[in-house]
Amino acid sequence: MVVPIQPRGEKGWFMLPQAPEQAGYYVYGNVRGVAGTGHLAQYAHANMLSVIFWVEREWQAVDHRKFGIGNISVSDGSKYDHGTHMSGIEMDIRPVRKDKVVGPTAGCSYRDTSIYDQAATIKLVRIFLKHPMTRTILFNDPEVQKACGPRVKSWKKHDDHLHIAIRENLCPPA
Ligand SMILES: [Zn+2]
């Protein structure tokens, strides 16, 4: 599949670069269960791209595994498989696995202790929280919540991914 280098959608958001070889992340996910459509739901607000690129660099400095980035938004901000994910400022990522498996089927729940790397996931969450744009993270592992503080919260069906919400503006609207 050939995806244009940096498509820009109606909202002015850019598609996340589809995980070049040397990236610290890989991409997964789809739209409405259709295989090969993941990139269509990876349109990100400029702030989200900044967060991703910064976290990616910090992560690569401390770990050689790639973290998985799934759904962000579709290009026109319409509703698809989520109640949210319509503003380019929300993104799902996977918990870190103990192995280096990547790709669409490399899912991982915090309850699967044979593959889930809790310490590394805590490290990744702390990097996200260090960025001034990061607002909240939804993820159900109570140990991650304990280690990372009150901005990490439980939400139904968030055992196998972390929902990262960032700010659209650093200043409150006038
Ligand atoms: Zn989400």
The share of residues in extended strands comes to 5-15%
What coarse outline follows from CA principal-axis ratios? Answer: globular
**What is the CA-CA span between the terminal residues?**
44 Å
Strand order of the largest sheet: 5-8-6-7
Write structural notes for this entry.
- With 174 residues, the chain is α/β, with parallel strands linked by helices.
- The chain has three helices and eight strands; from the N terminus they run βββαββαβαββ.
- α1 packs across α2 and α2 crosses α3.
- The model has no long low-confidence stretch (mean pLDDT 94).
- The site of zinc ion has 5 residues, from β5.
In short, what is this structure?
The chain has helices spanning 46-62, 118-130, 142-148; strands spanning 14-15, 25-27, 43-44, 67-69, 90-93, 134-138, 152-153, 162-166. It is of the alpha/beta class and 174 residues long.
Provide the fold topology.
Layout: E1 14-15, E2 25-27, E3 43-44, H1 46-62, E4 67-69, E5 90-93, H2 118-130, E6 134-138, H3 142-148, E7 152-153, E8 162-166
Parallel strand pairs: 2-4, 6-7
Antiparallel strand pairs: 1-3, 5-8, 6-8
Bound molecules: zinc ion.
Notable traits:
four-stranded mixed sheet; globular; 174 residues; alpha/beta; two-stranded antiparallel ribbon; 8 strands; 3 helices; Muramoyl-pentapeptide Carboxypeptidase, domain 2; binds zinc ion
